[in-house]
Write a structure and sequence with these properties.
This protein has 441 residues and is mostly helical. The chain has a single domain, classed as MFS general substrate transporter like domains (Growth Hormone, Chain: A, Up-down Bundle). The chain is 79% helix and 0% strand. The radius of gyration is 21 Å and the shape is globular. 56% of the residues are buried.
Length: 441
Amino acid sequence: MSVAATEAKIPSRRTQRISIVVAGFGQNLVLTTVTTFILVYLLQYARLSTEGIAVVTAVITVAKIFDAINDPVMGSLVDMTRTRWGKLRPYILFSALPVAVFSTLLFTVPDVSETGKLVFFAVCYVLWGIAYTACDVPFWGLIGSAFSEPEYRMRVISNVRAFGGIALGLATLGMPWLALLLSSDDQTTGTGWSLAVGVVSVLGMGLFLLAFTNTRERYRPGVQYRLTFRQLFGTLLRNTPLLMVLIGSVLGFGRYIVQVGGAVFVVIAYDSEGAFTLIGAAIIIGMVLASFLTPLLLKRMSAKTLAIGSSVIGAALFAAMFLAGFENIAVLLVFIFLTGMTLGIFLVVQATMIADAVDDIERRTGVRNDGISFSTLTFVSQTMAALAVLVFGTFVVLAGYEAGVTVTPEMQWTVFVSLTLVPAVSCLVSAIPFVFYRLGR
């Protein structure tokens, strides 16, 4: 086949960018649904006890740690894969269906004994985590491979993060209403949640397949792509800038607590799932605006400066939110919006710094390891989410909250501390490793 004929099959850069952004939107639609509402579903509809939620917290934490360990393994498999579709795109194709299936099963806990419910949840959650890792690691690696120009790639990452925030908003604001619409009663039921999550999972992962159909991996002459385990981990450990991003990200796990625990907190604080609509809207609007704003900021200052600045400012905002309290929801919404902006900036900068670090190690060693390097992005996200769930779940258990109990002010403030002071300390500490982020020359 001639070069011209081969190039004719390559989608335009614009088509690839739009497809990646839409695929990320679909993926985030599913991810947000699971991470935001799983605890609410288990508490309110599967009706697990406080002891059951403690077990769930342990299961999620252990599963997230397993997923975090599995990420580099997945990245290694990607880097050693060779097919006619490339090394990244096949995993996107074959992981979409399992993610959709297990996401739905997580919200279809059978009406059996609590032990049976916990076993069912644990098995489905572990399998969901494995499937999601298989789709997420190659997705981010594909962004680095398909878009080699740093500035254009940064715009793609910004758009992916921004539309991921929009997906977060649609899922956060719309899922409770969709679950109610699909319930056979005037009130939301567990069956309504099962149907709603099933619909969203099929739609979201269907959109995700655009990353397979409309993108192509780039291969540059003189760069080594087929790597051994020793080369993979050797170049990873030599990539000091990448390691600094990883450490700083994990230490900043507190940024995720509002996302994983916000829906439960509004039930405890305001006795209304609907109140999370306002909380969710505030953080989402902040994240989306910041995602579009960050490329402009990166033209005026370095990614390192933005990473440190967003962390320190985020710490100050979380501390101020605690002092302001939650009685006045309007004031709380302002702080949630501002912390959402710092989170949006951080997420764009984080992915951009990892992509730059991958390019840097390629220049210095001649080795391109998209799979294992971008698996670290999923690794830190899984680890941050695991720590966020662990901390928030621990505070819920300490507060003694479960469905049907009488909520006390002490219970409300105990949970509120986990959403404010813990993230404040976490953000502040996370700024330290970014001080040592220096790219090689």
